[in-house]
Amino acid sequence: MATESSNFSVPSIDITPYVADGTAEERAAVARAIDDACRTVGFMQILGHGIPDAVIAGLAEAMDAFFALDLETKKTYKTPPKINRGYSPPKSESLSLSLGVESANRMNDFFEAFNVGAARSDYPGVELPADDYAENVWPEVAGFREKVEAYYAEAKRVAETMTVIFADALGLPEGFYDAYTGHSLDVMRMNNYALPPGRIQLDGDLIGMGEHTDYGIVTVLWADQVKGLQVLGTDGSWNDVSPADDALLINLGDVTARWTNDQWMSTLHRVKPPIVDGTIERRRSAAYFHDGDIDALITTMPHLIDDAHPNRYPEPITVGEHIRAKLAGSRAGKRNDTAGAEKDRVLAARG
Ligand SMILES: O=C(O)CCC(=O)C(=O)O
Ligand SMILES: [Fe+2]
User: Fold this and answer.
1) Contact (CB, 8 A) for 194 and 67
2) 47 versus 2: which is more confidently predicted?
3) What spacing in Å lies between the alpha carbon of 124 and ligand 1's midpoint?
4) Which of 58, 112, 59 is nearest to 87 (CA)?
5) What residues does 116 pair with on adjacent strands?
6) pTM of the model
7) What single Pfam family name could you report for this chain, choosing any that match (predicted)?
């Protein structure tokens, strides 16, 4: 399998003209850069997002305080599997404890997470399914809720700003996304790639989070600068990506790939946290998934269908149906790849 390609790079784009009052020309230049990044990489670094340093520092403090709790305490914040909220322990935990030697097999995910998201009570007056729009659980950790909510609100704003840019970049009417995101099924997953020292011995490469594409419209990703995130290039190479100082990573999900007839890319990525002296070097990230309304119907954009690009998604699908199909695949232990181009690319990468 190819590693690191000299052709691969994640563009850095300053979105200040959309966050503050930019001129029409400045905005058009940003939209062109975003369009190019979305067509060729599907990942980008954004600067000028406007999230105050103190809010980002607060998120990191809240995560540190929660993940430092002992495992039994953290497990009291688990929710039933159908509810994507609260604490999610490492999948490999029981195996690594009982067997000592862990297979580095890619179905094992060595990370713990805490999820928060949009709840039914956030959208009074809208009839929404209680399991999908579940209420949050908040741990008894001083300041956790306030700090996480402050960052969540900023990440939501950045995700919505990205869709404003997307509308311009795709030549869509202003406000196009509003009709699909008024009660968006957003979730933020705070990830902690760490296991206590001595817990694992591996018989091969460790995969922290298996290769996958994200499900929704767009993901806003905050991450440490500890290496680990790898992104698949169009030539089949896996490439290390770390956020630059003050940058956030943005990547597209499958809803956008469907909508744009795969002209914009929902790119495969995975996390391989570094191993130092047999222990995972701790790495943290927080992925804010902006998925769209559960009942939003995603129909391939007609202006992105032509002779060179026949419609790859002739069956419109709702965001809810699409997410259910993805979850069914991952729960059955199937690899979480999508149809079409993405699948071809992952198979090519396997060599
Ligand atoms: O930890 C990372 O950098 C990426 C996390 C990710 O891909 C996800 O949560 O979907
Ligand atoms: Fe992801």
Assistant:
1) yes
2) 47
3) 31
4) 112
5) 188
6) 0.91
7) DIOX_N
**Candidate from 207, 271, 283, 291 with most ligand 1 atoms within 8 A of CB, to mutate:** 271
CB of 266 closer than 8 Å to CB of 254: yes
Calpha distance 228→132 (Å, rounded): 30
**272-310 exposure pattern, b = at least 16 Cβ within 10 A, e = fewer:** bbeeeeebbebbbbbbbbbbbbbbbebebbeebbeeeee
Name the 3-class secondary structure at 140.
Answer: coil
Q: Give CA–CA dist 254/219, Å, rounded.
A: 11
Q: What angle do CA 158, 164, 169 make, to 5 degrees?
A: 120
Position 209 scores a pLDDT of: 84
Nearest alpha carbon to residue 234 among 214, 262, 254: 262
Distance 270 CA to ligand 1 centre (A): 7
Nearest ligand 1 atom to alpha carbon 270? 7
Distance from C-alpha of 111 to C-alpha of 189, rounded to nearest angstrom: 11
Closest residue by CA, ligand 1 atom 6: 287
What are the extents of the domains in the chain? 12-350
Ligand 1 atom showing the smallest separation from residue 287 Cα:
9
Identify which of 91, 110, 229 to mutate to test ligand 1's pocket (most ligand atoms within 8 A of the CB): 229
CATH number of 12-350: 2.60.120.330
Reduced to 3 states (helix: H, G, I; strand: E, B; else coil), residue 273 is coil
Q: How do 229-232 and 279-280 pair as beta strands?
A: unpaired
Q: Tell how strand 317-318 and strand 187-193 pair up.
A: unpaired
Q: Residue 10: helix, strand or coil by DSSP?
A: coil
pLDDT higher at 109 or 69: 69
pLDDT tier at 1, thresholds 50, 70, 90: very low
The answer, yes or no, to whether residue 103 has pLDDT greater than 50, is no
Q: State the Cα–Cα distance between residues 115 and 102, nearest whole angstrom.
A: 26
Burial 107-139 (b: 16+ CB within 10 A, else e): ebbbbbbbbbbbebeeeeeeebeeebbbebbbb
Whether the complex's predicted ipTM is more than 0.85 is answered with yes
In this model, does residue 98 exceed pLDDT 60?
no
Quickly tell me which residue has 């230049």 as its tokens: 29
